[in-house]
Amino acid sequence: MFASVALLFAVLLFLLLFLNRKAKNFPPGPRPIPILGNLLHLNLENPVADLQRLTKRYGNVFTLFMGPKPMVVISGFQVIKEALVNKAADFSGRPQGLLINHALQVKAPGLALADYSSGWREQRRFGLMALRNFGLGKQSMEHRILGEIHLITQVLEQSLGKTTNLHLLFHKAASNIICQVLFARQFDYDDEFMEFFTVYFSETSKILNGFWGMIYDSVPMLRCLPLPFQKVFKLFKMARERYSKILADSKVTRVPGKPQHFIDCYLDELDKRGDDGSSFTEDQLCEFILELHFGGTDTTANTVLTGLLYLMNYPQIQEHCQQEIVKVLDGKDQASFEDRHQMPYVQAVIHEIQRMANTVPLGLFHSTTRDTELMGYSLPRGTVIIPNLSSVLFEEGQWKSPHEFNPENFLNENGEFVKPDAFMPFSAGPRICLGESLARMELFLVLVSLLRKFTFVWPEDAGKPDFTPVFGLTQTPKPYRIKIQLRGTA
Length: 490
Ligand code: HEM
Ligand SMILES: *[C@@H]1O[C@H](CO)[C@@H](O)[C@H](O)[C@H]1NC(C)=O
Known about the structure:
4-stranded mixed sheet; 3-stranded antiparallel sheet; globular; binds protoporphyrin IX containing FE
C-alpha cells in the first residue's frame, strides 16, 4: 500500500516537472517549481520590484512560469518592435484560458481577447468603422466630449476655492462618453447605472489584477473553489444583464438603416449578413459593448488623474500650457481637436503625461500564433508574451530625460512637437489599442478645456506628492486632494 502511494506520488511529481520543462533554446529565467512555477519568486501583492530584479538579471527576453505555463516577458523598444510590428503575424495572438477570458468571453470571443483570427479581423474592422462614424466622425465625437466636459466643469465649479477629492469624477465622464457612442445615452453622475458601472469596473479590475487573478491563472485546480475570483464572474454577469436590456430596448426603437449608435450599427450589420457564418452575432455584440465600456473607462480616467497630479506639482508647466491655450483659443467658445496643431507645448505635455502615467504597464498579453523566434530564442506556438510597455516608456537612450516629468521629451530645438517612436502607451502593431483616437481626443479636449478655465493647486497641507502609481493591469495614481481655483484669481 505504502509503496503504491509512493509510486503514484513519484509519477505525479515526474509529470509535473515534465510539464514545467521548457522547450529547447527557450529564453532564460528563474527555475520554476512544480505546480506553482515562479509564483514564489514574486510578491503577488506588488510584483514590481521583483520583476525589476528579474529583468535586470535575465535581460530583455526572459521566462516566468505562472504555474505550469511559461510566459515570456519582452522589454525595450528594439525587442518589442521586432515582435509586435516586424513579426506581427507571429506575435498577435491572445492567450486563452486565463481568468479574464473566462470572465469576459462567456458566449462569444469578443475582440480584445479573441485570438488572431479572421473573426477578430472582421470585428476589429467593424469596430474602427463604427467608432469613426459614431464617435470620431469628427464633429459628432467632439460634440459629445465637449458636452461631457460641460458636466465635469459644473462639478468642479461647486468646489471652487476648496480642497477636494475628485473620487470617480473622471471615471464617470469617460464612461459617459463611451455610453454615448454605444447607446446614445448620457447619464447623470449619480444615476444608478453610472454608480453600478464605475464601482463594478474598479472592483473587477482589482480582482483581475491582483493576487487572486494570479492564483486563478497559475493553479487551475483551485478554480472551482469559492474564492474571491468568483465575484468577477458574478459582476460580469450583472453587467451583461444590463447590456442585454439595453440591447432589447434598441431592437424596439431602432430604424433599420438609420443607426443612432454603435448597437444600431451592429444590428444593421447583422441584418445585412443574416446567417452567413461570420463572426457577427448578438452574443458577440454583448461582449463587444462590455469591452469598449470597460476598456475605455479606467484607462482614460487614470491618465487624466495622473495629468492633474503632475500639473499641480509643476505649476510653471501648468502655467505655460495655460498661456498657449488662452492665446490659441482667443475669442472661441470651445476648444476643438484641430487646435492641437497650434499647441505644440500642450501636445508635448499631454504626451509626457501619458508617458509618466504608464497606464497599461504590461499591455495586454499576447501569444505566439505559430512556432517562431525572437532574438535567437525559439518560442513554440501558444507561448504567452508579456510586452513590457513601461520598459519602453522609460528606456534610457530613447528619451532626453527618461526618468523625469519633462515636456522637452516631445519638443525639438525649435519648440515644435515631435513624437519619438518609443512613445507606445497604446502598444504597437495590428493589436494596437482600438480606442487610441478616441482616447487622444478625450485627453486633449478635457485637459485643454479645464486648464482654460481653472488652475489646479496642490494643497499646502498635502505634504510631498507620491508619484508612484498603484500597480495593476491599468495603473492609477494614489488618491490625492486637489484645490481648484478659477484661472487668474490665484
Ligand atoms: C489612455 C487611454 C488608453 C490606453 C493607454 C489604452 C491602452 C491599450 C493597450 C496597451 C492595449 C493593448 C494592445 C495590445 O494588445 O498590444 C489596448 C487594447 C485595446 N483598447 Fe485601449 N487604451 C486606452 C483607451 C481605450 C479606449 C477609450 C477604448 C474604447 C473605445 C479602448 C479599447 C481597446 C480595445 C477594444 C483593445 C483591444 C484591441 C485588440 O485586441 O485588437 N482603449 N489599449
Ligand atoms: C518592466 O519594465 C520596468 C521598467 O524598466 C520595470 O520596472 C518592470 O519591473 C518590468 N516588468 C517586468 C514584468 O519585467
